Structure formats: C-alpha cells, structure tokens
C-alpha cells in the first residue's frame, strides 16, 4: 500500500517517514524508517525498532546536506558518516530537505548559544572594549578642538593688548587654557596608545586564526581532490569486476553512481531488498486493437541544403587543469567569475540560443495542424530537440557582452529570421525573437543561474519560452530543465539533462507534461529517457510521447486508458492502449570530424562564419571569440580581458550618470541601460515578464545604418 503523505514540516516538529538508504554495491538501496528530532536524524529498519534498536544517528548541527537529483540527496558530517538517501518522489524529497534544513539551522543556533558561547563572549567583549576606546578617542578629539579654539582666541587677544593692568589677567587665561589643551592632548595620546596596543594584540590572534583557516581550507581542497580520484578509481575497479550493462553510447560507461561510502552497520543480516534506483513509470503503454491502426506517411525530416561552411579549425590540444580554477568557485555563481577561453567553445550564448532552431521544421509542421492536441505533440518534440546538441558539448559558450547581438537570417533557405540580444549583464539575460513565413513566432528570455557543487556543475535556466501560431492563435509557453556537467574534478566530463517541463497552450488549456529522467548507472532504463503525456483542459490524456533527448522521439495516440497495478512504493500506474508509435523527431547526424570541432552540429559550424551587413554588435565580430576559433588562445585570453574591462568601465560610467540623475530623488540607483532592439513587457496570456522584439533591426540592416549601435568590441 502507498504510505500516507506526511505533513509539511514546520520548525520544532519531529519529522518521520520512509526513505531508501544506500548500503553497498551488493544490496544497493534499502528501505529504512527515519526520525528527525532535536537536531538528530536517526534511522531504523522498521517502525517497531524505534523503542529499542537505533541503527544510526547523525548530528545535523555540523552536517552538510546536498541535493543530487530529483529524488536523491546526501547527508554527511565531514567523512565519518555519509548517508546517501532517496525519496519516493521529488515532492517527498523536498519535504525532507525543508525539514532537515530547519532542524540544522535550529541545532546550529543552539550550539552557538552553548558550545560556542565562550568564544562568542570573548569576541563580543573585545569588540565592546574596542568600541569604548573609539568613543574615548572621539571625546578627546572634541575636547582638543574646543580647547584648541579657546587657546587660539586667547593668543589672538594677547597680541592685541597693550602693556598695562590687563596683561597679567590675560596671561593667566592663556596659561590655564594651554594647560587644559596639554592635558587633553595627553589623554588623547594615552587613548590612542591603549587602542593601538589592544588592536595589535588581537590583530595577531586574528591573523593567526585566519592563517589557520586558510591552511585548513588548502588541506580540505587537497583531500577533496584525492577523494575524488579514489572514488573514480573505485568506480572503475567495480565496473571492471561486474557485468557491464548495455548502453546506447559507450561513453556512458564512465558515468557516476553513488559512491560506496554508505554506513553498513545495520545491513549484515538484512536480506530484504527494494529496487529504489529505478523510478517507477507513471504510465505504461500497450498496443491497442489492430482495427485502430491506419497507415501513415513518412515523418522523416530533411535538412535544407545550404552553401555555408562545413568545417572550422580543429580544437587545439591545450591542457589546463579545470579543478585548479573551479576549486575556488564551490557554491558560487559562475556568471560572475572570469574563466579563460580554454574552457570555452568558439560560440557565444546568443549563438547557442539560436541553435534551438535547428529543428525548425517541427514548428512548420505544427503550424499546419488543425488539431491543437496534435500540434502540442510537435511543440513538445521541438522542446526536446533543443537539447540534442548538448550531449557532447562540454565547452562553455562565451558570456555575451551587454548589447551584443546575433542574427540568424535563414529567410530564403528555411523561411525564418532570428535575432538575439544580451539585454542584461547582472544577472546575465538574453532575449530571442524568431518569426517564420510558415506562420509561427518563437520568443524567449533566458537567464542562467549556475552553481559549482564540488564534483558537478548545475546550470539552471530561468525564464520563459513562448511559441505563437498565426492561424490558430494558439499560444504555448514552457521552461527549460536543469543541465548538469559531471566529473569536474577528475574523469571525462559528461552532460545530463533532468527535470520536468509543462508545455501549456494558454488558449485551449491543453498541456504536455514532459519528464527528463536523470541518468543513473543502476537504472535498467535507457539513458537520457524522456516521456510525456498530452492532455486536454479536462485532464483527459490523448497522446503519449517517449524517446531520448539525444536521439529521437515518438508519439502514439491513446485509444483507451485504465488504472493498472500498484508499482514500486505504492504508485498506481495508468495503462494506455495506444496506436502504433510514429517517429516525430530524429536527431541529425553530426558532421564528419565533429569530435575535433567541439562536437558542433552542421548548423553550429555555420553560426560564427563571417557575414557582410550584420550589426557591429554581432557575435561574429567579437575578436576574442574569433581568435579562439582560429586557435590563437593566448591572444584570445588577452582580448577577452580587454573586452571585460571595457564593459566594466562602461557600467561604471552608466552608474555615475544614474547617481547624478537621481541625486535629488533617491539615494539608491540602478543601471540605466536600455536594450536597443527589445523592450520589457508583462505578457498577458502567460503572466510572464519578459523582453520582446520591438522592431527596427531588419530595416536598419536593409538600409545599412547602424549609427544607433554601441561600440562594445
């Protein structure tokens, strides 16, 4: 039976529930009853054991909590205890993470108030003493100013007096005020001496503590790197000693699974095994009655022939240790960290965004559909197709400069035109607009948030993508999933896409829920799997989609649905009877020699090809990117630094102008930059705030007038 859902955790609650705990490579994940109370996480084999046998406890006050994917998370306390845990769903995992973070915060506060009270008390006492000395200095300073002014007045009056009866009185006043000034000055000197002595004594202690912390950090970095290498070695040894599963791509054999660091103290005599590594499918499909099947035409798409280039210079074999740079970036936002071009590919983020149009024919076909549910299938396949170019693309695209643009004019060959512009620098945001003569418009605004987690890098695209069809007025919107780059420290880099996407038709209420399954070494599923269900506004399912984001997608029409048996963890699965699946999208093969050309697709190879007539802000004109493509990486790094400094200077100038303009209104200010070709609106149908194309670019190109463009290169 399915377990009752526990309530949402609140501060102070005792939180309990079932989780799957990793034990070892023989037994895998085992189901355990976990109890979170008073800052301690304990677990038992069963609920009945709670009264007499605890199998393990970890103190959350000093623990690290890390999310691995939609259901998995890890709790560790510095190496002695490491719990690899798996929840039954992403919602359940988030409930546990919320409860654990609340408990950790409360435990840490209690520890600070007790165990750390002595150290905190000493620091507070020192700060109070220093504040007292600063106040003494301030008082002495006021007195020196007061008595100094009085002394100056007396001396001025003395100079103007004649020798006579008043002379003695004035000399007495001057002497008295000079004495006061001397006393105050001595007090000031003594207060300065006390403050300096106190500051110097504590400065030595603080400097010693700082050096100790720095040495400890270096040791931790070295230990982390060594552990990663040992982890990688153990994984390879394990895979060499077991039967390799079959993969659609041999490179997947080097991917990561959970490490064998589980606490196995309670697993010696436990023979019960739950296969929790493989998420149960929310639905399964079976063939419908043959009478429903009809023959259909081929769905194979062809590439438009073009005369663009088919090669770029091979990537030079320059070695640079990625870990040597990334180890200082753990937990940081990478868009604010300058990186050498050695980790880049010779394309900007604007060009990568334009690559979403490689399979534009899916939108052409969608525009011809009379049925909105069938149209939804093509739009959903288009969202999946945009990830197919990323499977081997471990190089980082260039961060666009503010005001940088990229046009992709394929009106003659493919019927569409596309324009991107970098509309914000912090946070970095790019706006994209594409329109087609076939009756569709695509627009998106993407902001990338990225975090380095030590062994992997997470890239979270924020923002919305929208597609509008002229004939039907159907308006679709969706968001992108999380991209993860694995093996940052050691091993071969590889890319994974995971998460869920809801494609919504705001006119009809139709919806397609797509699920990108995270890769798992232990799963029996095909790698990079994507599944989806298309439903109408009433929630009735009409189509199912399945495939992989790096190869192809198929769709099937649902003829009948029913509730099936309960799967793993009590989930009831829906059984869909469908017609024979039809291929809706298939990835184009990579060009010959792609492995030496950054694994670029045929379209990507053309994107940085020089073109006449483009705007002076176009990515093709970016000098550091051009130098990198030509193999001059040292020169490219120098040019990249020059461009970044120029951009920083331009921003400081805008901030000065903003402060000057707002000095009479407010003490706060913002960057006053306004995009050239896009404007920000609140879109009514989706409720999203985004930049949309305001016009003028293609007219300026036709006239050859670019006076309005900033000099960014």
Automatic annotation (TrEMBL):
SMART domains in UniProt: PH (SM00233)
Basic and acidic residues biased stretches: 618-642
Alphabetic keyword roster: Coiled coil, Lipid transport, Lipid-binding, Membrane, Phosphoprotein, Transport
Localization in the cell: Membrane
Coiled coil (residue ranges): 210-237
Pfam families (UniProt xref): Oxysterol_BP (PF01237), PH (PF00169)
Domain of life: Eukaryota
Gene3D superfamilies: 2.40.160.120, Pleckstrin-homology domain (PH domain)/Phosphotyrosine-binding domain (PTB)
Sequence ranges of Polar residues compositional bias: 243-252
Region feature (Disordered): 240-272, 610-642
GO cellular component term of the entry, any: cytosol
Molecular function, one GO term: sterol binding
PANTHER family, sorted: OXYSTEROL-BINDING PROTEIN 1 (PTHR10972:SF205), OXYSTEROL-BINDING PROTEIN-RELATED (PTHR10972)
Designated name of the protein: Oxysterol-binding protein
Organism: Oryzias sinensis (Chinese medaka)
